[in-house]
Amino acid sequence: MDDTPGTLGKVCRALADRNVNIFGLHSFPIGGKAVTRFVVDNPTAAKTAFDSERVTCAEAEVVQVKLPHRPGEIARVATRLGESKININYAYCGLEPGTNTPLIFFGVADAGQAGPILDQAAAAKP
Fold this sequence. Notes:
- By secondary structure, the chain is α+β, with helices and mostly antiparallel strands.
- The chain has four helices and five strands.
- 36% of the residues lie in helices and 29% in strands.
- The protein has a three-stranded antiparallel beta sheet.
- The termini are far apart.
């Protein structure tokens, strides 16, 4: 989307108007544009909102893990991915609706391989 004042708010309003809940969000500027990643509860409605705002979008699979809110938790699960030779391309945070439990989203080459590793790491006691 354009990297101009108000653009993110306008796009988020379009999502809200379609009852799309945002679980996670990450945005950064590059070359006059903003690359923004959303994790939403309704990707189909989100695509409609993006189209209505003339925002180019692409879907990508990410893996998420729910972690306790304490020091070292992200380090622990990121280390587990590294030990399994899974490179993290990007990561960002969000909150679980209704609980405010931290959610961490990882963009990795093989979400199918990373998912079980993160589930196991989240279930393990540090």
